[in-house]
Amino acid sequence: MRQFSSLLFISALCLPASAFASLSCSNTCVSGVQSQSGSFYDVFVDCSSGEYSVSTGASHPATQASGGFPQNVIYGGSTGSPGTSSLGVYFYGTGEHFSTSTETGAVTVTPLGTCTFDPTDTDSEVGSRGLETEWLLTDSAGNQYVWRHEVVTFGDSALNSGTRLTQSVTASAANEIGLRWQIDYESGYDDGPTFARVVCDPFSVATATSNETDFNGAQLDDFYQMINNDGITPVVENYTSTVHLGGFPHTETPDRVVYGSWPNLTGAVWAYTSSTVSADYDSAVLYYYGASRANAVELPESSVVARSMVLFNGVNADDCGEFEPIDTGGVIIDTGDTSEPVPSYYAGGCASCNTGSGSGGFMVLTLVVALVRRRGGMA
User: Which one of 190, 200, 299, 329 has the fewest CB atoms closer than 10 angstroms to its CB?
Assistant: First the structure.
């Protein structure tokens, strides 16, 4: 019998420059850890770095099967201690890499702060609550950007709950960029879960690998599965989308995914060269949109560009729940359109953040990187 726990959705979005002028919420956190709780997922952000973690919530089947103890979805979640999962953005115009952690060749950036906020619910994201972090970046050409990361939990049942990560970028001038997540998974106390590609219809899971492996977009299916293989129960599966999902704008197929050893990936250069080392003892994933300039995310002048991913967890899952993979034939269906509707919870920046009072059951970890480019400095 299938038991689904939750969903994680990750995306990147470019927003109007006016939406990212500053971090202006009244509840800004600049040190320590900020959190939001849902029935099925709890999310955490280190306010001094913007790094994030996720655990199962009180109603999650994995929590219930573990005697009421929350389970890590992203490492550090069960103890509310983020610090091993990071994000980065690469500007191909100047050849610069900005990161939330210490990575080879990258500029480590300190956030302006983190806000709690209560996003407007949508049909796909019910009971949503989130965390938002912002950075101010300046490249070597003197252009300034605002980088935004959102972590959101949503859902009102085990079948439609999860976490979404969203990176978003807004430009007043054309650019080419890359977006990357380094995600440190843990599944059911196993810090080195294995990796397998997943097809939803009919549901099938490919042979798992525990060795570092590099996948391009053509080699990916609907999701990939991270699963504990060390004999510890419960056996918890973590699923991450690698295709467009109906009802979830900006979910697309990444052009590169690297499964590997966390000690290798956590400090990796942007153009990381994978090896065949075993990752069974401590594994993570690099998830790219725009891993190389040939696959860069085009950012037209005055445009909105977004990328997202969805994660959900299950216990003995045998399908993809209510999530609907859609084959777009390689066409990015919601990018570079200045008329593209922007989710309401991005519209006002942190000026519209508030603590919220709802008890949403679906946790969305939204990694929103909002990059506002202005020549000669910020207006």
Answer: 329
